[in-house]
Amino acid sequence: MLLRTAICAAVLLLCQPHAVLAQDTARHPARSAPGAEELASRIDRAVAPYFQADAPGATVIVVKEGKTVLRKAYGKADVQNGVAMSPDMVLRLGSITKQFTAVGILMLMEEGKLALGDSITQHLPDYPAQGKNITIEHLLTHTSGIPSYTGKPGFMSRMTQDLSVTQMVDSFKNDPLEFEPGSRYRYNNSGYFLLGAIIEKISGQPYARFMEQRLFVPLGMQHTAYEGVERSKGARAAGHTRSDKGFGPSQLLSMSQPYAAGALVSTVDDLARWDAALEGGKLLKPATLQRAFTSYRLLDGKDTNYGYGWELGKVQGVPMVGHGGGINGFSTYALRLPEHKLYVVVLANSDSGPASPAVVARKAAGVAIGKPYREFTEVALQPAALDGLAGTYEVEQGVQRVFRREGKDLVMQRTGRGQVAVKPMSATEFFIPGSLEYFEFKRDARGVITHVVQHTDGKALIQPRSGDAPAARQAVKIANAAFDTRAGRYELRPGFVMELTRDGDRYFAQATGQGKLEIFPASDTQFFAREVDAEISFEPVAGQAGQTLVLKQGGRTLPGRRL
User: Fold this and answer.
1) Residue 385: helix, strand or coil by DSSP?
2) Measuring CA to CA, which residue among 429, 431, 420 is closest to residue 449?
C-alpha cells in the first residue's frame, strides 16, 4: 500500500575490506587449497564495487568444497561512530531464520513426533482452521492461505510491542483465509510463526531454547541465537536505514514479533558450520533434506519454486537453493549450489540498499563456479535512438512489459509494478541498475524490432513485441492551494495512515513506517506514483459534504477517512 518494500522482518550495502582468507571448518571453515588466492581476488573484485567505505557494510563468506575461499567484511558496522565492519561480527538474519525453523520441524518429524500431513489443529487445537485442512506442510511452503501478520495494516505501528506467542497468534488467527490451502503460493510469515508455536508445543521448550539445545550448541554455533537470548558477547553490527539525510539507525523492533520467522542472529562463520552440518548429514537424513530442497507442487500441479525454508532458483543456469532476509536495519542472503558444493553468505547491516545481498551473493557465486555474470558499463546514446525501442512486449498471458522514452532515458514498466529506468550498454542492450539482468532488443532483416530478450540467471526469455507503447501518463499543473486543501493524514485501516504533504511544487505520500513517495497530479483530485503502480483519488461521499481519499494499488481499493 504505497509501500516500496515491506519490512519482511518482521517477518520482515558497501569498501574498505577488512579480513582474512580462511581457516579450518571446525573453527573457521579449512584452509584454502593452492590457487584459491586468485579466486578470492576475483570474487573480491566482483563484490567490492557494491560497497562504500563510509556506509553500512556487509560480511561475506564463500565456501567451496568445504574450504573457505573468501571471508571478508566491507564498510562500516556503525556509521554514526565510525566503526569498521569485521567478518566475525553478529548480524540479524531476518528470514534466513526460516530454514532453522524448518529443520527443527523436520527433526521432530524424523523422531515420529509429527507428520507433515498433520492438520495444524492436531498440535494447536485452539487454532480456528475455518473448516479447512491446513497442514504443517502448508505452513512450511507458504501455501496455507493464512494472511501474513506483517502485511496487515497497522503492523509497523505496533512492531515495538513485546507480545507473547499466544498474543501474536491471536492477532491473526481469526483473519479470513486468502485462498484454499494448497492452491496458491503466497510468502507468509504467519505460517512460520505457527511452526515455532508447534515446536514449543511438541518439545515443551521455548522456541529459543529448542534451537539452542538441538542446533546451535551441538554444531558449535557459538554466536547464533534468538536475539535477546545470546550465549556470547560477540561484537554486533548496528542496523541502518537510509533516509533523505543518509544512513541512520533503523526503526526499533520487538524480537518477540519476528520469532520463528525471523528473530535469529548469527555470523558468516556460524552459517558456514550450519551448511557443513546439513551437507554432512548431521541433522537430517539425506532424503529428508532433499525433500526440503524440492519445490512444493500446488493442487493444480504447478511448482512454487519453494521447498521447506529454502527457495529454488538458478545461478547462471546452475541449480540453487537459498533464502534471503529483510528485517529492520539488515538484509541478508545465503545460497548453496549443490552441484559445485558451494556456499555463499552475505549479511548486510542496512535494510535499504544500495545493493541487494541476493545480487552480491549471486555475483560471488558466478565467479566461484567460473561463470561470472556480465559486467554492465553504461554508454551514451542519443535520445532519438531510444524511440525505435519503445513498445509493448508480451511477458505471458495477461502480463506485459512496456518500454518508452522519457526525456533522455528509456524506462520500463511491467504490469502491476512500478516504473524503472534501464541504462544502455549498447544500442540494443539495457540493464537495470543494481541487478544482474539485462534486456536485448532484436530486429528482423528489415531492421524492425520484433522482440526483446530478458537475460536472467542463465535464462533467455523471449518476449515478442505486440504493439506501440501506450502514452505515458502525464502530470498536469495544478494550483498548490488545490493540493493543500487535501493535504493531511488519512486512515486507510486501523493503525495504517497515509500522510499527504507538499514541498514547494512537489507532492508526496507517506504510509505508516515508510519513506516519502512522490506523487504526480493527473487532475486536482487524482494523483499517481511512478515508483510503484498506485493511484490516489478524492471521491465524493454520498450524503456527506467533502471527499474521501481512495488508494488503488495491486488490484485493491482502500478508502481512507481524514484524521
Assistant:
1) helix
2) 429
